Amino acid sequence: MVFVYYGCNSKFDDRFLTVCSKESNYRQCTKKLVDTITKASKEIEYEENISEEDDIYIEYGDAYIEIDEDYIKERNGVYIALYNLESDLLYGSLPPLDNIEKLPAFSEEIKEVKEEGLRYYIYDMPVKDKRLKNLWVRGIVMPTDGLRDISRISLIAVYTLPILVLISVLMGYMMARGALKPIESIRESALKIGSGMDLNRHIDIGEGDDELHKLVKVFNDMFDRLYNSFEKEKRFASDASHELRTPMTVIIAECEYLNSIKEDEGLSRNEYFEGLEVIYRQARRMNDIIKNLLDFTRIGRNFYEKEPINISELIKGICYDMKLINTDSNISLDEEIEDEIYVYANKNLVYRMLVNIISNAYTYGKEDGHIYVSLYKDTEVNIVVRDDGIGISDKDLSHIFERFYRAESSRTGKGTGLGLAMAMEIARWHGGDVSVESKENKGSCFSIILPPDPEI
């Protein structure tokens, strides 16, 4: 009987060991063994003559055993050998085992052999060529070598894994620190701004277009708006104090003067009434200022209610009233009003807004001047008050809607400096706006926009 092993060294094919180590079970390893030996048994043929020089030929009786060159090498980590029935090794390679000559008899069964702590599997199959019926192909595989490789890999992993984890933690820490650095800068800047109430400062984290830089831009814009708002309130408080201090000073001075007159000196009736007139005039001025300030507060708190109003009729009535009030003025007022235009608004506030603007046109009009009031509706309700009065200079034009601001040409002592500011506040409270165009000594044009009543 003839028996052959295919193989060339004592080490297993890494591919097969990898498969065994991954599958790590008996069934997978033995399946690979059976498949390899089955294929090898088909590649051994009986030939009467030598036909291919590249193949291996073993003399067998009057003919030859042909072994394909491709199957000489160890396959899939399996040692392959060709034996005859008398267990004589005809060709192949054997694993490095001490008792390799004392292997079990041939049989088409998988046999497990243990020797000095080693474990390996054996599988035999007769050659498929019927003319070589006394030849057997035997395969041997030793999965324990794969387990030793796994042990070495595990040992390497035990030492390298903590190092890799440490490196990963350090890299993660550095990346997180770099990512959170802008947030820390935002926090520190916000604390400084909050503790010092310095809203004019900005958060600076450099250039960029990511989400953090967009957030910083929102914060900086918010600080700018807060700063401008606080500055306006500070200026408003200062101006209000100044406006109230002036009439109060006059009242106190007049009272002190009246009280300083001795009884024997006496006061004439006219002098007494002149003093009272001064006090009354200044008290009324203070009352107007306080009333305007109270109205600003009420508008901010939505104190007023809205209702549908016919603004066409309201403006006609205002124009009629203004003509009666200014009968001694040589300024004419003409109106062009579209009928049946409605807005959803507070009637008293709209009345006050229009009176303030038209009164302003009367106050700063020219001799024999004209005032034109028009109302029309497109997508919104438009009110235009135009005059040919003294106009407004370019340097004053951007400030006239500020509280207590009065241009140099308007510092006559009349008014409180709150009329146009109140008009703007009322328009915006209704969801509208007021704008102005003016040229000095050529007149002004105030344009008021209000949203129409959506129900009409």
Major sheet, described briefly?
6 strands, antiparallel
Bulk shape: rod-shaped
On the 0 to 100 scale, the average pLDDT is 77
Distance between the termini: 113 Å
Low-confidence stretches: 1-23
Radius of gyration over all CA atoms, rounded: 54 Å
Q: What structural class is derived from the secondary structure elements?
A: alpha+beta
Q: Which percent band covers the strand fraction?
A: 15-25%
Number of E strands: 16
Give the fraction of residues assigned to helices.
40-55%
* Number of discrete helical segments: 9
Order of helices and strands: EHHEEEEEEEEHHHEHEEHEEHHEE
Descriptive notes:
The chain is of the alpha+beta class. It contains 9 helices and 16 strands. The protein has helices at 14-23, 26-42, 143-196, 211-260, 269-300, 311-325, 347-363, 394-397, 419-429; strands spanning 2-5, 44-47, 56-60, 63-67, 79-84, 91-92, 111-115, 118-126, 135-141, 307-310, 332-337, 342-345, 370-377, 381-387, 433-439, 443-450. The strands form 4 sheets. Strands 1, 5, 6, 7, 8 and 9 form a 6-stranded antiparallel β-sheet that branches. Strand 8 and strand 9 (135-141) form a beta hairpin. Helix 1 (14-23) runs antiparallel to helix 2, helix 1 packs across helix 3 (143-196) and helix 7 (347-363) packs antiparallel against helix 9 (419-429). The longest helix is centred in the middle third of the chain and has 54 residues, at 143-196. The termini are far apart. Residues 1-23 have low confidence and may be disordered.
